[in-house]
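S.,

Sequence below, as promised.
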Amino acid sequence: MLIKQISVFVENKPGKLSEVIKEIGDCGIDIHALSMADTTDFGVLRLIVNEPEKVKEILKNKGMVVKTNEVIAIVVEDKPGGLAIILENLKEKGIGIEYIYAFIGKNVNGANVVMKVDKPEVAIEALGKTDVVVVPAADLFR
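The prediction came back faster than expected:
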């Protein structure tokens, strides 16, 4: 149930993000989720795509710094405190969250959230014992 996420270091200059996104699109690859965090000189672009290894190869061949991480995608009930309940459950299991972001998807049962955690297998097991839906990669790419 782990999903491969691409992280790309993008120079913090006008047009650089556009170049990365255009390159991915020109190769016929679909972006399902993205997040961008910046610093003074560069940003970290995180992507969930239907062909992560292909994207990694394409961008590395363009001279970009690229790596893959494994993340978890879940569906969070769309109600006040829905995410808080899940985070509390992970806290009780001693699972740290490195980062988190939401994305629009085809799920009508709630908000889609991506998490990078320090103990992914433990997190999946813990979430599996609740009513939280852990989304497999195949379901993201329909």
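The helical segments are 16-26, 52-61, 82-92, 120-128, 137-140.

Coffee later?
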